[in-house]
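Researcher: Here's a chain I'd like modeled. Treat it as a single chain, no partners, no ligands.
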Amino acid sequence: MTALDCDVLVIGGGIVGMSTAYAITRAAPGTRVTVLEKEAGPARHQTGRNSGVIHSGIYYRPGSLKARFAVRGAAEMVKFCAEHGIPHEVTGKLIVATERSELPRLHGLVQRGRENGIPVRELGPAQIAEYEPWVRGLAAIHVGTTGVCDFGAVAARLARLAQDAGASVRYGAQVRTIGRRPSAVAVRTADGTVLRARALVNCAGLHCDRVARLAGDDPGMRIVPFRGEYYELAPSRASLVNGLVYPVPDPAFPFLGVHLTRGIDGGVHIGPNAVPALAREGYAWHTVRPQELAGTLAFPGSWRIARRHWRYGAGELRRSLSKRAFTDAVRRLLPDVTAGDLIAAPAGVRAQAVLPDGTLVDDFLISQSPRIVHVLNAPSPAATASLPIGREVAGRVLETLRTG
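Model: Modeled as a single isolated chain. Structure tokens:
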């Protein structure tokens, strides 16, 4: 039998991949782990391009992986940042209803928060002003466990901790082919390197469904990329926002709407919207990869999303193409903002798993096949929940090693 290079190969060097590698080394010291990341460093995509919010878990269906892992992960993330000197702050946040039609949904969030074990406080207009003097709304809830941190720094620290425990992290290592045998999994990277392991973990984020197919597995879904575009408040206007302010989300979508986030650097990010990206790493309208776009357009679920949610999508598209329309969305929460106060900021892309019938996968999705664990849906709040997700995935792959 050909010698194995390691016990576990992890594809993907975002926060979930690094957390998984770290969790394996903690749970089973001596297990040989190699992380393969195609970029030159960690956290170059979803992890490093989000709003940096440590989510409380208030939005998610009780009992779901998102609810359980986000609530647990938020507390763990704050503790991890404190222990390792990573910039963070527990700011709390407001979820604000600006129209009467939103009040029932706001009250529903209060109930959901309580079911998930999250302390929430209901506020009237005067109490909103105590937290955020420039924000206007009919009612709000305050969620005290929400915070902000530098998730890119967290991923880098997890990588270092895994390496200190004996793991190997290889950057610039894009996986091109995957082969399977009854006793091993082998991958070939773009430079021709072949690595063999007893098991493989797919944490490839925006490319996770493609990696699953490379391994010969049918993931039963497809990643449809949605770009989230951000602005930031001009520094002279940053005092308009003290902490985090969110609208009441539409329960039909996994997107939280345009919100206000004072980050760890003191700057205020505004966004994101959610528009279809023309490439999996399509951070601007002019970034088009024809083969990837053709794959999205050929997927029946894409058209079913469009037919079912065209009105919502049209609004998001308008806010993408018109700064004035984006500003109008912000002014619902922050009336004193003008278009001149908004400065364009880097965008992110959400890896959203979609089923063939057009259903947006709502929960985290982890599947298994012989010797492989696939993480197939891990958008927000995956960064918040990355420590418990990593343990969950590590437990599954270690069980594979024990039984295989």
